[in-house]
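User: Just a sanity check before I run the rest of the batch. Below are the structure tokens for the first item. I only need the designed sequence back.
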């Protein structure tokens, strides 16, 4: 299988660098082919601007989404963006390796998403109609692929729980796992999260390495996070979860399949959609 690692840390000798190197060596030993996008080493341009489009007229007002669509469909994206899109299409699984900085990913990685997930590639895909709002959240260009976050965190585990001061880790990662990974069709695996990362001692590393290798062993077999599919019949014509689903649940957890719920719920009949029922 093909695995792409998108790695975002400025120091090769960091813990993140060690986790990236471990993933490369272990996945290769399992027979997988691995490619790495080392964003700092690549001097990746994090800003989305007119330079991403080879034929954007100088001085013309930039509407980035529209320009992104024209460049993607017309083959006039900048070479670095097109190369990363090719890697994603090549990959069967993607690992995002990064430290949690200010409750999210580093800016260079967010800039990778902003530029690579172009209109027509990762969004703006598929037809709209009735309860269907295009091919997204479980469908789309990257359907059939898996992705996992490998995240180092400076804080302690209790800080990232439902009652912890920083909020539950699943909620903090929801915009990434649901909104970036799942939106264009990839299945999101539960994250590999390493807490108190700045306090890790050399003596603790072997146990961490074994835990990570176990997660890498399950990259293609572990159950993904059970997000609801947008076009699975769970959402109405306004993309609001239908009554009777996720009763007694609130927050981001309503977008997870609950016990006993079918992955595919019945869609409204065409005449009901037309009548607004």
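Assistant: Here's the designed sequence for the first item:
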């Amino acid at each position: 299988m093909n695995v792409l690692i998108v790695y975002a840390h400025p120091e090769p000798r960091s813990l993140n660098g060690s986790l990236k190197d471990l993933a490369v060596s272990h996945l290769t030993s399992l027979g997988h082919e691995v490619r790495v996008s080392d964003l700092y080493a690549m001097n990746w341009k994090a800003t989305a601007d007119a330079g991403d489009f080879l034929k954007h007229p100088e001085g013309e007002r930039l509407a980035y989404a529209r320009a992104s669509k024209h460049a993607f469909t017309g083959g006039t994206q900048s070479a670095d963006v097109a190369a990363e899109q090719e890697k994603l299409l090549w990959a069967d699984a993607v690992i995002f390796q990064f430290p949690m900085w200010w409750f999210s990913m580093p800016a260079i990685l967010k800039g990778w998403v902003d530029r690579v997930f172009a209109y027509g590639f990762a969004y703006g895909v598929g037809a709209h109609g009735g309860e269907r709002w295009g091919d997204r959240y479980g469908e789309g260009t990257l359907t059939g692929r898996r992705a996992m976050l490998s995240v180092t965190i400076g804080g302690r585990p209790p800080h990232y729980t439902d009652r912890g001061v920083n909020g539950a880790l699943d909620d903090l990662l929801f915009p990434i796992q649901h909104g970036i990974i799942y939106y264009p069709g990839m299945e999101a695996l539960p994250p590999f999260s390493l807490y108190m990362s700045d306090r890790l001692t050399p003596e603790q590393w072997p146990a961490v390495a074994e835990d990570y290798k176990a997660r890498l062993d399950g990259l293609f077999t572990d159950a993904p996070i059970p997000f609801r599919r947008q076009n699975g019949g769970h959402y109405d014509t306004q993309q609001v979860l239908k009554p009777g689903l996720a009763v007694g649940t609130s927050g981001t957890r309503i977008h997870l399949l609950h016990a006993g719920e079918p992955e595919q719920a019945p869609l409204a009949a065409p005449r009901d959609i037309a009548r607004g029922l």
